[in-house]
Every structure is written in C-alpha cells, then in structure tokens.
# Entry
Amino acid sequence: MKKLFLCIAFFAFSAISFCQTAVTKTLNSKQTTICNPMNLSYRFCLDTPSRREAADPTMILFKGEYFLFASKSGGYWHSTDLIHWDFITSSDLPFEDYAPAVVVIKNSLYFMASGGAPVKIYKTSDPKSGKWEVANSAFPIGMTDPDLFLDDNGRLYFYYGCSNVNPIYGVELDLKTLNPIGKPVECFNSNKAVFGWEQPGDYNNAPENPWTEGAWMTKHDGKYYLQYATPGTQFKSYCDGVYVSDQPLGPFKVAMHNPCSSKPEGFIAGAGHSSTFQDKYGNYWHISTMTISVKHMFERRLGLFPMFFDKDGELYTYTGFGDFPFTIPQKKISGPEGLFPGWMLLSYHKPIQVSSELMDHPKNFAADEEIRTYWSAQTGDNGEWISMDLQKQSMINAIQLNFAENNTKLLGRSESMYYQYLLEYSNDNKTWKVFADKKLNKTDVPHDYIQLEKPLLARYIRVTNYHVPDGTFAVSDLRVFGKGVGTLPEKVNDLKITRNQLDKREVKLEWKKNPSAMGYNIRYGEAKDKLYHNYQVLDKETLTIRSLNSNRHYYFTIDVFNEAGIRKGTEIKIEK
# Structure
C-alpha cells in the first residue's frame, strides 16, 4: 500500500509539473515582445541594505549569439534571441569590479573591468563554458568605466573615465600586447552651462557638478560616435550624450541630437551608461542603465531600446513608450515604426484589493506607474494576494508583474531566489480561471513579463503568492497591457511653448486638459523632421524640460494617448 501511495504521489507530482510546464510553454514559446525593465535575474548586492542591482551593461554579439555583462552580477547572461536569457557563472572573472568591458577580436572575447593598476584582461573562445584565461596580467592604466573598441581596420582603442572633474580619455592599444601605445588623450569633458542634459537632478535642477563617465565607441559610415553617460546614475535624468569625429581619438564635436539616449519619466526612468550593439540582422540597439535608487543610489535595472542613424548620420535612441511592450524584429528595420504592437496600458490607477497591506506601502502603489513605490503585504506567506479591477472587460495581450524587495535580508545569490505565484482572471470577481500557473516555478523573474499567444477578454486580475525569495510579498506595479474600450483621445491644438530667456537650457510647455486622455508623449528636436526626443507624462497639462542645448532652437509636438490607443501630434511648433 505504501509503495502504491508513493507511486500515485510521484505520478501526480509529475502530472502537475508537466501541466505547469505546458502552461508556461503556451505563454512563452512564441513570445515576440519584451517590456522594460528587462526580466533578468538581478543579483542581490553583497552589502547592505539588501537590494538588487545591475548596471553599466555591455552587450556583445558573438558567433550569432548575445552575451550580456553588467556590474555586480556574479556572472553574465546569454541569449539567442534577445528575449529568453540564461545565466552563466564563472570563477575566472572579477565580477565585483564595476563596468565590465568586452570586445570581440577574431574568434575570442576579451574582458576587463574597472580597477587600480595593474588591471587584468581576460579572454575566451567559448563564453558559454564560463572558462576564461588571462590575456594581459598587468595592464598599466588604473581607471573606472573602461571601453574596448576594435576598429574595422584592425586597430584597437581603449576609452575610460568616471569623474565630476576629469574628462573622458582615449588611447590606442597594441593588439598583441594589449598595452597602450603612447599617452592617453583628453576626448571631451562636461559643459553643463550649455548642455542642460548634463545638469544633475531628477529634473536637471540640482546645483552640483555632473559625472562624465561610461564611454562607448561606435563606428558608422566612417564616423566615430563616442557616447558617454551623465549627469548621475541615481537620477531619472540619467542619459547618454554623444560626440562625433572623423578619427577614433578626435578631435570630437558635440552631435546635434543630444542626449542621444534619454528616458526621463515613465514607470521606470533613466537610459544612461549604455552599450550600443548590432543584432544578427544588422539593427542597432542600446542597452542602458535604468534607475530605482530608493534603498541605495546604486539600486538599478537594465533596459533595451532600438537605436538608429538617420540619413544625416544623427544617432538617436527611440525611447517613446519605452516601458510598454515592443517587438523584437526578425529582420532589418529602418526606424521604430512597427516595433510597437499597439498594446496600451490598462492598469493605471485601477482599483486594487489585497489580502493585507503595510501602512507605508499601501495597495494603490501597485497601480501608480512608479517603480520607486510599491505595495507590500504584511507577510510573505503562501496565500497573500493582490487583485485589480480593470473596471470593464478589456482585451489583454500581456502582463508585467514587477516584484519589489521589502524587508529582505538576502545578499548575493541564493537557492531561494525565485517567485512562485498563481495568476488568474475573471469577469465577475467570483469565478476565476488560470492565466498563468507558476506555483512550481524555480526561475528568478523579478519583472516577470507574460505575453499571451492570443488576447484574452477579462475584467479582473488576481495574483496569489506561493513563494518569495525573502521578506514580504510586494509588488511595485501590476501592469496590464492590451486594447481598452473606447475611442482615441482628441489631439492637442493649444500647445504653448515658452523658452526661458535667462536660462535657455529650460523650456516650459502648457496645454489644456484633455478629458479623454490618460497621458501625453512630447516629441521634440532640433529640426521639424527630427523629433527624436520623447518625454512621457501622465495626468499633467504642464511640463518644464531643462535638458536642452542652450545654443539650439527646438520644435515640439504632443501625442495624446489613452487605453484605446495613441493620437499622433500633427502640429509642430517652435519655441518662442
């Protein structure tokens, strides 16, 4: 009898495991979109307070596959499609040093990170194995934020710098010894009096000096684009600027379109200290550091954005609706058109019910479109739950479940680093059906993103906890995407633009409230046909932007959006 019971239990458990795997496979096997922040296993830092971090990313395409390195991660990630990722550990690399730099030279990857001289450079021909060997045991330049760039003529260059005083430096390296040839040259430094994007603060309004750091070189059509991060990693304004030259070591001239990568608002903000790479189809991408910076200034995540060169060679990153779902293309594309599947945000400020809550982390924080706030249950026990009322039946295409770390004590990686939950839907708040069964999940998914193969009609969404890595069951936002009921909002026809004549880095925008709008995406740029900057706001009819170049004029238009879709702005105005 005991053997029979054990056999039945074994087959029952196997059946449950098979069903759970089948559900997950149905949801994810044909996934074509992703949603920032990237859903990676971000490591808990080794120091207190307990929090997750990844930053300063370097992405490399090597033998048709992608390898992602980031600060303080204890390893690196691998993918074949930029959608699904596995994690690789190694005992050979200095993962506790900041800002890893990686370059492909012939059939090997070369790796180095920030450190005091002498610095080691490593190489491998098989990064999936986790086995690396030392290629240079005594690189003589101690520095922070290295970048290795191999020119298409076979010459190797090294860029570095991280300071609120000193510039970005560059020097050529000997390809055989991997040591410098000659002395480093100064490439450029900050100029916050002219460049508003270099002014610190969430809204570029703090008085201190900016940090100039995170160099990354990209060559395109014979031009050298030296990108850099500013003004500080803890700010929503964290962005990348770019200088251009005909030579790898300059002289450099600031590009017309700056910053070339910026995401100052949204569910998660920041698009700085990045790397630029091409996918297997030749498309350019920019993978960036995004900020939370609540528990610690270095509490950060990663975001992936499409990047383009226009017909005049201007480099720009498209961050419009940059934390909504977007498609990973399977062919060469010429612009951001077609990447957005049209799935709108359905969860903003929707009514929330919960099993319990903490006073400082109330339930409404789970639907406020702000990663810096979160709802927390009183415990991390099995059975704690959160439910959202979309207020009407809506066509759902995807859900992003962003977990928060509340009262955690974890440091580093552990076997308990995973979430188990049951995601359900209903149309009457009584009868519930399974959306995703992850009660047996053992994968770490702190920003779990679930795309449906077919859209699903539902009004209520419920998440029930079965396991958290540590601390309480907490969610920064339960985000639902799809097609809402209703019509597109009316367009904005009364935009008023006022440039600050005392500080021309600043401009104020005003417009009348649109009752049918959820939010607005302001597009602007230095030419009518180059409105590459995006600034997205919710529930606002006024906005002050302080990140302009004081020596340039700007054009503006406003896209209006709600749950039904986006009404593109057609009237383009220049500031007065």
About this structure: The longest helix spans residues 2-28.
